[in-house]
Amino acid sequence: MKYDLEKHVVRAVELKQIPRFLYKYRSCGLRTDSIIKDSELWFSRSKDFNDPFDCNLSETNSHRLKDYKNYISRSGALTNEQFKAIIKVVKKDPKFLLNTALETREKTLNDHGLLSLSKNHDNILMWSHYSSSHQGIVIALDIPKDPRFFSMLLIVQYQNTYKKLNMYTETFKDKNYIHRILATKAELWKYEEEVRVLKKPHGLHAINRSAISKIYFGCSTPPEEIRRFKELCKSSNMRHIKFYKGSIVNGAFKLTFSKIT
Predict the structure, then answer these.
(1) Which of 49, 130, 174, 225 is the Cys-Cys partner for 25 at CB 3.0 to 4.6 Å?
(2) Which residues, 6 or more positions from 185, have their beta carbon under 8 angstroms from its beta carbon?
(3) DSSP per-residue letters across 2-41
(4) What is the CA radius of gyration of the chain?
(5) In terms of DSSP bridges, do strands 184-186 and 157-159 run parallel, antiparallel, or are they unpaired?
(6) Sign of dihedral through CA atoms 98, 101, 104, 108?
(7) Would you say residue 123 lies in a domain?
């Protein structure tokens, strides 16, 4: 199965359904150094995101008895008497299952981690917000160099409104549900062109060293930081990494990057 997923990812790149490179905007510092030294990236829990709407879509408030029955049936092996007893309670108190359902969804969300990446490396706002006001770096990740790492990709959809969730009928076994709850964001975030990698559990996950292929330095990255990163790559046996330096395009709100050695 893993092999099939890897082939699917490589094929998707070949067909240009997903980009070959994804980019991680970073400030300079020890945590960024560890990405190079250890070839590991941090997958965050959704509850730690800075947007309170992120992975927190509203639940519908118009559940039907059919929905409750569907949820109870999925909850495990019950005798017919047990099933009828629970339904009887739910008819009297529709919120009877609510806390259990919410706790189950919350636990599933927190058991997984998300790595937020971007389709672009030259967005002015992204550099300003996530790379220390253009003083940090952007790390390019080459998907075909480690297709297993990228086997669960979620391309973020940006919307002004959305269909409410129904925790009694939708499950995490449904890819559409996973995508809706984990990769739906407000339209105003569209500039990020975000793509997420989903893994279990949250925390650090290793990536093939060859997949860390390029480092882009911002137009304001200090020369001493550029020298330090070059030495770090050498000492970490990452000599294959190519380096680029950003600069402001004359007469335009645009960045350009030139290869440096």
Answers:
(1) 130
(2) 51, 53, 54, 156, 157, 158, 159, 194
(3) HHHHHHHHHHHHHTTSS-SEEEEEE-SSHHHHHHHHH-EE
(4) 22
(5) parallel
(6) negative
(7) yes
Q: How many structural domains comprise the chain? A: 1
pLDDT tens digits, 162-200: 999 998 888 888 888 999 999 999 999 999 999 999 999
Distance of alpha carbon 80 from alpha carbon 103, whole angstroms: 25
Nearest to 43 by CA among 184, 197, 154, 180: 197
The answer to whether position 79 is within a domain reads no
Element (H, E) at 49: none
Residue 155 forms part of a structural domain: yes
Q: Which domain holds residue 121?
A: 2-57+109-260
Pairing between strand 212-217 and 242-248? parallel
In a domain, 85, yes or no: no
Q: How far is CA 153 from the centre of its chain?
A: 8
Give the model confidence (pLDDT) of 12-26 as tens digits: 999 999 999 999 999
The DSSP code for 149 is: T
Both structure tokens of 97: 């299952």
